[in-house]
Design a protein that fits this description.
Elements lengths: L1 E6 L5 H15 L3 E6 L13 E4 H4 L4 H14 L3 E6 L2 H5 L3 H18 L2 E7 L14 E2 L1
């Protein structure tokens, strides 16, 4: 399952993601991973969640990010949730590439049974309609 937290900068997307991470840590019978561009959420996210910064690993672009997420899932079969902040800051602002990326992540989610949550800084109307064929709005 893929959920999207959509809104403009300052609309509370990151706060909502932090709340979801902390709730998942309390309810999950496995591991929760929070991915961000740089280490900003260290003191906001429950210490039991694995916090990963993509800048540390040189991840840029949708293809590299997909490989990164696949590696996270392959490295730990106990992961139940992967929650990502600032998707466009990590990958770039290409709406069609985002839709292609989400389609691949949906297949990864189905294969691994991991729930993914992404924050997306934009208006819902700007996103390709097909993205909601495999993503839900959180």
């Amino acid at each position: 399952m893929i959920s999207l937290i959509i809104g403009h900068k300052g609309s509370g997307k990151t706060k909502r993601l932090i709340q979801m991470v902390n709730e998942a840590v309390e309810s999950s019978k496995g591991n929760v991973v929070c991915v961000e561009k740089e280490t900003k959420l260290t003191y906001d996210v429950n210490y039991r969640a694995r916090l990963v910064a993509t800048d540390y690993f040189g991840v840029e672009g949708f293809d590299a990010f997909y490989g990164f997420l696949s590696g996270i899932c392959a490295g730990d079969h106990d992961i139940t949730h992967v929650m990502i902040d600032a998707t466009f800051r990590i990958c770039g602002r290409d709406y069609e590439a985002l839709a292609d990326f989400m389609e691949k992540v949906k297949k990864l989610s189905d294969l691994t049974e991991v729930e993914f949550v992404f924050t997306i800084s934009t208006d819902e109307e700007d996103l390709p309609k097909r993205i909601f064929d495999f993503c839900t709005k959180a």
